[in-house]
Amino acid sequence: MTTHSAPTPTALYDIPGPRTRKRHRLYGIVSTLLILALIGWVVYLLFDTDQFTAAKWTPFEYKGIQELLLRGLGNTLKAFAYAAVLSLVLGAVLAVGRLSDHRPVRWVSTVLVEFFRAMPVLVMIFFIFVALKVQPLPALVAGLTLYNGSVLAEVFRTGINSVERGQREAAYALGMRKTQVTTFVLAPQAVRAMLPTIISQLVVALKDTSLGYLITYEEFLHAGKLIASNLDYDLPFIPVVMVISPIYIGMCMLLSWFATWVAKRQRRNPKTEAVGVGPAQPSTLMPGER
After folding, report:
1. How far is CA 48 from CA 33, 44, 115, 147, in A?
2. What is the largest CA-CA distance in the chain?
3. Burial 164-173 (b: 16+ CB within 10 A, else e)
4. 141/81 Cα distance (integer angstroms)
5. In angstroms, what CA-CA distances link 272 with 142, 168, 191, 241, 265?
6. Angle CA(240)–CA(245)–CA(248) in degrees, nearest 5?
7. Is residue 159 a contact partner of residue 149, using CB atoms and an 8 Å limit?
8. pLDDT tens, 231-278?
9. What is the rounded radius of gyration, in angstroms, for the C-alpha atoms of the chain?
10. Is 140:209 a contact under the CB 8 Å cutoff?
């Protein structure tokens, strides 16, 4: 006869009993059925409005439309690459400024971070594009960089401050300067904790590249809008969205998978693993000792 030990309660919540577990199971079943019903209703509407007819999908076989989509996808990835790199650099600079011992530098960095975090991305992009008369690609990249860089600055600062205080004190005891302590001691340990949040913010930057179509930047969404506006059947945007959306979702999932892979690789890296300590051995006696 197999006996099951009772769940151990925790300080955060009480372990649910049998009746509560049955109720939660019922909630899960009902929620699943509702989601399936919603998906079924959407699929029914798509068939009912003839969204899967050959006439609405044949245009995607044309070489010109395929090249337009590929060119838009390439422009999206280019804007994302620029924005991602510059956001990481700006975030690191602002984080260092906020951690500075010099009060003016710390105040200026704090004002910049709080200002650009509070400013809507679209407003910054429009201001740079219209008021400063910057070309679409630099305007889009600049807006994304200012916003995501300020958010990443807080991520970096919080991650570095989260490292155990003894690590910092031990490094200072060895005679290291603050720059060396941050670069060689704190930052490498903080990266593993910060990585999921960094990747999540980069996913936000990738999705926000779609704002480029509002300033006539020929990115992926702009290409889809251009295609839909030239199709001569009812509801032309639905097939276009059904083509574009999975690609956006796939890129975001690929980025998340890359973050998971990097995290696992860091955990397997011998440089980050604990070093085994061998058993104590008889030491060589100093002169005059017995």
Report:
1. 22, 6, 48, 42
2. 100
3. eeeebeebee
4. 9
5. 35, 17, 12, 44, 10
6. 130
7. no
8. 777 667 888 888 898 998 899 888 888 877 876 776 666 554 444 434
9. 27
10. yes
Q: What is the DSSP letter of 183?
A: I
Nearest one of 239, 249, 259, 236 to 210, comparing CA atoms: 249
Q: Is 138 exposed, middle or buried (0-12, 13-18, 19+ CB in 10 A)?
A: middle
Task: List, for residues 81-118, the tens digit of each pLDDT value.
Answer: 999 999 999 999 999 899 888 899 999 999 999 999 99
Residue with tokens 């372990």: 15
In this structure, the number of other CB atoms found within 10 A of the CB of residue 6 comes to 7
* pTM beyond 0.85: no
59/57 Cα distance (integer angstroms): 6
Residue 139, Cβ neighbours under 10 Å: how many? Answer: 22
